[in-house]
Amino acid sequence: MAENKPIPLEFEKPLEVLSEQITRLEQQLVSHPELEADIEKLQEQYSKLKKSLYSNLKSIDHLAIARHPQRPYTRDYLERWDPNWLELHGDRKGSDDQAMVCGLVRFDDELRCLVVGTQKGRDLRAKQRCNFGMPQPEGYRKALRLFHHAEKFGIPIVTLIDTPGAYPGLEAEEHNQAQAIAVNLLELSGLTVPVISVVTGEGGSGGALAIGVTNRILMLEHSVYSVISPEGCASILWRSSEKVLEAAEAMRITAREILALGVIDGVIEEPLGGAHHDMDMAAANVKAALTRELKSLLALSPAEIRKDRQNKYRKIGAFVEAN
Amino acid sequence: MAMDLKDWFSNRRKRRERENLVPKQPLSNEEYCALWKQCFQCREMLYARDLRHNLHVCPKCQYHFRIGAEERIEQIADPDSFVEIDQKMDSADPLEFVDTDAYSKRQKQAQKKSGLYEAVLTGTCRINGHDAALGVMDFAFFGGSMGSVVGEKVTRLIEKAIEEHIPLIIVSSSGGARMQEGILSLMQLAKTSSALKDLSDAGLLYISILSEPTFGGVTASFAMLGDIIIAERGARVGFAGRRVIEQTIRQKLPADFQTAEYLLKHGQVDMVLDRLQIKETLANMIQFHQPLVEDPNRAFSKNGRSKVGSRTKK
Ligand SMILES: [Zn+2]
Q1: Between β-strands A319-321 and B89-91, what pairing exists: parallel, antiparallel or unpaired?
Q2: Helices (H) and strands (E) in chain B, counts
Q3: Are residues A80 and A224 in the same domain?
Q4: Band of the pLDDT at B31, cuts 50, 70, 90?
Q5: Superfamily of domain B67-291
Q6: Which residues of A touch B222 (CB under 8 A)?
Q7: Checking CA distances to B20, which of A284, B59, B157, B218 falls within 20 to 30 Å?
Q8: How far is the CA of A202 from the centre of ligand 1 (A)?
Q9: How far apart are CA A159 and CA A147, in angstroms?
Q10: How much distance in Å is there from the Cα of B11 to the middle of ligand 1?
């Protein structure tokens, strides 16, 4: 249990102090039963503080939760949705990118889907194996192979997005990272099976969009989605890596803000404090939202499903025309 | 280009000052109007009119000067054949974005400075008599970045090509997606690529020309989706910028990294062309892809008329 205890973030420190106080008093409770009233008062204070803390989060706090090292990743969701899920590997061209996980999943007797998601890795070795969740071009081509597989067999697709971005490396450029992303955008547009994406953590630019051109886009409450990382934006537009807070606010990266911009279709609630406080509950919430959306999309014809997706993106943009 | 004697002297003075202070500094936009121009590569002094006649390629060392969208259109389209569409479209500044200054203010400044409305010009034209839809990006406006306007104009251009059943040509030059429009800019990658799926299904030819420089979101969407991809000599093209990669992998990159020749070596483009070859090659390619006989089984033959390439007018 101890190892699963959520690691507090910087803005959660006041909560942590209070929690430690409560624990100390509780240890003395046996010899000092009169402390019980104090403990109760502190606990009340604790839950009040917790509620107010999480209902007044800044963009940068959401970002910290989205990047929390204990945040549930694609494999955590897969295990909870279907303990018998079948992993499928490889791009068939010489590579199996571990930053991109693909598998066949049964939600229930009537609902099956292909899940494609980025994977960050929990311990150091896994992180390195998964390249910290940054796919190579081969990862996007692996995803594309399985998108076509799903299309062939009429299987709906769910994508889970949690990546800092596509990997910016020498080999990635040599193997044409840009083309791997671009082709996925084009091919996803043409699919006739329902496709739904969920941003579970970080939606990092083109590397996220490469598995994110979908009929519905959902975001977890504390997840973020942006055209460039707040760090990158700060260093380019403010010429200062210290303006991350300003950049994060200005770009409107949080789920609620992006919903208000009309880009995404829904926000999935997280357990208080973030998905890492209760992975089972987070997984159940995502599954419920996906089931609902998939069932409504499955009522459409294949041609309508493609049209629905293309119309969604056709409408995005904010401009004025002069005469 | 007509010019006051006074302007000429003032330009010459400015140029000399610049040369004395910072000898290797590239010339600014206003200097394009100057009568003389120095090659950045071989330092040769070139007569501006000759340089223009040579499509802004140094006749001595073949250095390709960066050119604007209007000049590019002049070089590719038959005289007076370009008909611009969606000329006046402005970003609505959906985020009311402010960094060290307001985005809305920066936009107005950019329009004033570049004489352009936005970072892409779109329209229809003829290329050696062949009809085509032509889009040209301009790096001088916000680094050619793609926001809502660029995404919408490129998408409408693709739709125009589908509607008129003509081939599509886009000349890219861009630093990537426009940060000031946040997630809406990112979604323009999806919007343009989705339109290209329809163009592809209609059996229409799309030729993408990569010019110096093309990076980020534009490379990761329509620029890399051409049926034929041409890199112009001297272009640098990639997904991530050189500096970002060097910081990430902490090693030196090869000198030719992300150059046109490097792209060719790694199978990313069909060919590298000198600027002087581009128009002829485009016309040739459009002509080549026209069907020789009418084939009623092809997806693009609608109403019994195949015209995948273009109608040819003389
Ligand atoms: Zn020269």
Answers
A1: antiparallel
A2: 10, 10
A3: yes
A4: low
A5: 2-enoyl-CoA Hydratase; Chain A, domain 1 (3.90.226.10)
A6: 182
A7: B59
A8: 47
A9: 10
A10: 21
Residues of B in contact with A167 (CB under 8 A): 248
Residue to mutate among B85, B88, B96, B184, with most A CBs inside 10 A, is: B184
Report if pTM > 0.80.
Answer: yes
**A40 within domain boundaries:** yes
Peptide bond into B254 cis (omega under 30): no
Question: Which phi and psi (to 5°) does residue B282 adopt?
Answer: -60, -50
A102, A44: one domain: no
Helix (H, G, I), strand (E, B) or coil at B35: coil
Give residue A82's identity as a one-letter amino acid code: D
* Segment B150-203, tens digit of pLDDT: 999 999 999 999 999 999 999 999 999 999 999 999 999 999 999 999 999 999
pLDDT grade for B307, boundaries at 50, 70 and 90 = very low
pLDDT band at A35 (very low <50, low <70, confident <90, very high): confident
Over residues A87-137, the pLDDT tens digits come to 999 999 999 999 999 999 999 989 999 999 999 999 999 999 999 999 999
Beta carbons of B248 and A136 less than 8 angstroms apart: no
Q: Are residues A162 and A15 in the same domain?
A: no
Same domain, A47 and A87: no
Claim to verify: residue A37 and residue A173 sit in the same structural domain? no
Question: Among all chains, which residue has been given the structure tokens 């660029």?
Answer: B150
**A31 and A48 within one domain:** yes
Quote the pLDDT of residue B35.
82
* Of A24 and B127, more confident: B127
Q: Which of A177, A185, A235 to mutate to test the interface with B (most CBs of B within 10 A)?
A: A185
| Count of structural domains within chain A | 2
In this prediction, residue A55 carries a pLDDT of: 86
**Domain containing residue A277:** 63-314
ipTM of the complex: 0.95
Q: Residue B77 has which token pair?
A: 């389209």
Query: What is the predicted pLDDT for the residue at B29?
Result: 59
Cα torsion A184, A189, A192, A193 to 10°: value is: 60
In this predicted structure, the answer to whether residue A309 has a pLDDT above a threshold of 60 is yes
**Domain segments of chain B: what residues?**
28-65, 67-291
Q: What angle do CA A70, A143, A306 make, to 5 degrees?
A: 110
Q: Residue B280 and residue B129: Cα distance in Å, rounded?
A: 11
Contact assessment for residue B58 and residue B46, using Cβ atoms and an 8 Å cutoff: yes
Tell me, rounded to whole angstroms, the distance of Cα B121 from its chain centroid.
9
CA gap B143, A209 in Å, rounded: 22
Rounded distance between C-alpha atoms, residue A248 and residue A238, angstroms: 12
- Compute how many other C-beta atoms are within 10 angstroms of the C-beta atom of residue A108: 10
Residue with tokens 């942590």: A16
Say yes or no: A23 and A124 in one domain: no
C-beta atoms of B191 and A319 within 8 A:
no
